[in-house]
Amino acid sequence: MAKEPVRVLVTGAAGQIGYALVPMIARGVMLGADQPVILHMLDIPPAAEALNGVKMELVDAAFSLLKGCIFIIVWFKFQMVLLLLLMLLRRALESILQSWLVVSQGGRNGKEGCYVKECVYLQVSGFCLGTACSSKLQGEKNVFTKVLVVANPANTNALILKEFAPSIPAKNITCLTRLDHNRALGQISEKLNVQVSDVKNVIIWGNHSSTQYPDVNHATVKTPSGEKPVRELVKDDAWLNGEFITTVQQRGAAIIKARKLSSALSAASAACDHIRDWVLGTPEGTWVSMGVYSDGSYNAPAGVIYSFPVTCRNGEWTIVQGLAIDEFSRKKLDLTGAELTEEKELAYSCLS
Ligand code: LMR
């Protein structure tokens, strides 16, 4: 029997990431080749024409899994028209009880000196979206709604969304660090000249920012004689503790420099990986990195959205416990945790 369609809301749908993401969703890359979807695509007035173009392309692509498209243009100018925004977002969220919200509009682009702007951004996107979700879903059963925040600062945007959408369980609000996780896999695969699919169990700890810690201490590579630790095969701790880490940390900025645009293809692909594994489960013996509400595991600060190694079963993630953390790693985990605590304080000071 054919499955019921799942509703997926993509915000910033006409933007770079949205444009790369919606065909992947409509083709079944995110939720499976047998899962019909209804797309709810949201953007702001300057993107209305572009969104219409995306609509035409979606018709032209004749995706057999795509059972409907709903387009929403949101007019807003900071908090002044919050009420209108809420009304429109309520329309976007109509009848979505089992859905994924993919918040994908652009963020800080790795530029320096825009901390205050980020804060305002948090207020506008996080507060408004969160309040809208909350207002629509308050009191309703929405335990199925799963949220992936992509827009930067992704971890803290997700935290603000959690604050203002209290009827969505905290465990259902996550942010994207799978992009960094995949980047780490890619770097190891290039270094060792092995298939990327043979590398697994890298970890991204902390923030989706340049303080994130890509950790290979538990990562392995499949070889003809079994799984071998990455460190044993690379035989170059200086590279693993130096250039590898900074390359992954700064990959987003390097792509912006090269493309004059932020990463969209890899971000959209990682968003699909994130939700697919969350919903359909991680393979046996494999973990992935997800930004999730921290319970203080590994002495990370509790109450921030922190990236951990997780496994997923039955639509739920679980932090992998008991991994050894050496002194070098401890410092890196603490550094990125401190940045998240600082971002949280800044965001809350703007919102109060
Ligand atoms: C990325 O990691 O590619 C992006 O988060 C970069 C950015 O600042 O948009």
TrEMBL record:
InterPro entries: L-lactate/malate_DH, Lactate/malate_DH_C, Lactate_DH/Glyco_Ohase_4_C, Malate_DH_AS, Malate_DH_type2, NAD(P)-bd_dom_sf. The keyword NAD applies. One of its GO terms (biological process) is malate metabolic process. The active site is at residue 208. NAD(+) binds at residues 12-18, 43, 150-152. SUPFAM superfamilies: LDH C-terminal domain-like, NAD(P)-binding Rossmann-fold domains. PROSITE patterns: MDH (PS00068). Residues 177-347 form the Lactate/malate dehydrogenase C-terminal domain. Signal peptide: none annotated. Keywords: Membrane, NAD, Oxidoreductase, Transmembrane, Transmembrane helix. The chain crosses the membrane at residues 65-89. GO terms for molecular function: malate dehydrogenase activity; oxidoreductase activity, acting on the CH-OH group of donors, NAD or NADP as acceptor. The keyword Cell membrane does not apply. Belongs to the LDH/MDH superfamily. MDH type 2 family. This is Lactate/malate dehydrogenase C-terminal domain-containing protein. The lineage of its organism: Eukaryota, Viridiplantae, Streptophyta, Embryophyta, Tracheophyta.
